[in-house]
Amino acid sequence: xxxxxxxxxxxxxxxxxxxxxxxxxxxxxxxxxxxxxxxxxxxxxxxxxxxxxxxxxxxxxxxxxxxxxxxxxxxxxxxxxxxxxxxxxxxxxxxxxxxxxxxxxxxxxxxxxxxxxxxxxxxxxxxxxxxxxxxxxxxxxxxxxxxxxxxxxxxxxxxxxxxxxxxxxxxxxxxxxxxxxxxxxxxxxxxxxxxxxxxxxxxxxxxxxxxxxxxxxxxxxxxxxxxxxxxxxxxxxxxxxxxxxxxxxxxxxxxxxxxxxxxxxxxxxxxxxxxxxxxxxxxxxxxxxxxxxx
Length: 294
Description:
294 residues; alpha/beta; 2 domains; 4 strands; 7% strand; globular; DUF2268; Peptidase
């Protein structure tokens, strides 16, 4: 079992310096290792379209901004730091969970789109996807806060990847609930906090609402909502719901992350275990620990 952080620095630099007409094919080539991440998608997958829809860096504008951002990441040792973080975190998880099956994992660090207002604004220049076993993609703009949190972001996604990996929690897109999702975010944050402390370990979009009882109470009313297509307003909040043409439910950005952290903290206190040990914790048990407290 191994984790490989692909060296996308040279690939992205080559793309951004290439003639515009050549960039699409070069970008598709860079993204090819992520194809397995979309194995559950119906029909043929267009990796370039998914990259652009997901706020990945553009190939027809902002070249200088992106090249400067790329050099910022290189100067910060982003790829090397992420590799060390993944390796160290995997050791912790293997020690904490006897018999853990860890697949080989491919990690892609990708620059985000500086012209995407939703990504640069409400998302704070960072999105991560680690829910499909064997693949992790982090899309990032190197704001200082994001560079500082590279390790914490990495291990958050690793927790997802192994939670939903072989022998772990089954994620059925049709029957999974909002509660399942926000607990997984809370556990992943708790693991990042276990390794890097509260200041760096909390996902940034959830921090403003960690102690907001009104937001927490509202999220609790949606815990039983099923179907992944309905999760965005409950987990990420109204700004993301509006961005993707979904119906808002009256929650701020990152509400589900804040609520997930509160639910998980109650469960951690009740069990005396670490987030690493609770990699495969049943979300219903995590939620019940809070509801029992009233």
